[in-house]
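Reference record
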Amino acid sequence: MRVLSIDPAIRNTGYAVLDGDHRQAAALDYGTLSLPQKLSQSRCLLAIHEKICALIEQWQPNELAIEGIIYVQSHRTAITMGSARAASVLAAARYDLPIMEYPPSCVKLATVGRGAAGKQQVAFMMRALLRLTETPAPDAADALAIGFTHLAAADPIRSHLFRERKYI
């Protein structure tokens, strides 16, 4: 299976393309789409959408995995995060990809072993589990972890551990 995974944010969207299963996963591409502060929110959303479309065309994934909506204290932050997420979801829908979402606690549990793990722990585990030569940047590491979680959830023996996932 090939999965495109997204850690959405308006200024720093993490992305990753993983191939295989959770036992033999390979990171084909990963990184962070960083957008300047001077760029308007609408231009950021367009850039996110275009980047995700380009990744889909380049890598031809079978599915898209994305971080689920998280609780934030600021309504403004929630709206901008939701907008970035929507730009990614629309790109996947444009290419008729199945879309699965995972809450952050589920991703941390699947990759680190505890649902309250820190960003550095996630990055370290992604380096180890995917046999990377360097520790990925935080947003890219989160996207790698979302993809890894999706591959683990696809395993029929382990799928019962991922009750919080859902298709959108």
